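User: What would this chain look like folded?
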Amino acid sequence: MKQRELLALFALGLILLGLPLAVLGYQYWLRPALSPNRIIDIAARVPEQAGFAPDAIRVAVGETVTLRFASMDVTHGVAIGPGLGVDLGPIDPGQVKEITLSFDHPGIYTYYCTTWCSPDHWRMRGTIQVSDPANPDVVPAAQPDRVIEALIAEGIDIDAAHTPPAEHADISILAFQPSAQRGELVIAGGLDVPAELRDPVWRQSHTPAQALELLTGQNPATSERDRLDAIAYLWTQDTADEALATGKRFYNQNCAACHGQSGGGDGPAAATTAEEPVAFSDPGYMFERRSDVLYAKIRRGGMGTGMPNFGTLFTPEETWALVRYLWTLTFGTPPRTHTG
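Assistant: Here's the prediction, encoded as structure tokens.
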């Protein structure tokens, strides 16, 4: 009996220890050895425990690699940008998700966490440096951002404290939320809209408050509510369905934790920021904001506010999609994309 019991215990030990060892051996030795391309394992831990490891990878142009992300503690989300469209979604503790890809051009890409995992969540970033095999030590220079350069040339201080001009002070105490839905009907009903307001380039570099001055001059007998609703429509009409979906996804993944799901500045992490997060749903605040300044803030980060830069995560086009989504938090969904 004793011999049989020992054999049974030995067999059980082989199962309990051997199977996990076999799995680990396959994952971390045999599979990489047999794979036709390089496999890179990346462990994800909360930033207080070092974040991604490794947090820097070098890849050659044209090289196919498989990146395998494993969550070691809490649920993390992983995406890679800018412009790659890679989003692995949430990765639960002990789970592994992978992506196989190659890069056509030299550059620097960023893998980052999309799930609020800790107060230092924004530090969950790693870089992929893609180099030209002919010049492996040459790092491509970052391209200048024309929007930010134009703001600097204009003398706009992106980090200036926001104080509404006296003539616009009443906008900060609006008794109602301007509506893009109603604004479409107002314009269709014959409101005289100045040419500047119909120009998306002009709207990009001017505030809704400035538009209100022009609209009032052209329509002095129209109610203020109608004029404000018209502006709400004008500021959201360029938001195509695809861009709206992209902006919403980026907002929910990267902004809602602080700024709130509906843009109220009341996200679960709002209390951890150096400054109170902006409420994009507040028309009194947003009426004094320029789209190009919002764009610059997103790409460069908010100095002194604790807001990180997102220029290393999003392309300029993706950033504009996010800006346009912010305006829908203020004014509502554009009529042609409204579903409810």
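DSSP finds twelve helices and nine strands in the chain. If you want, I can go into more detail on any region.
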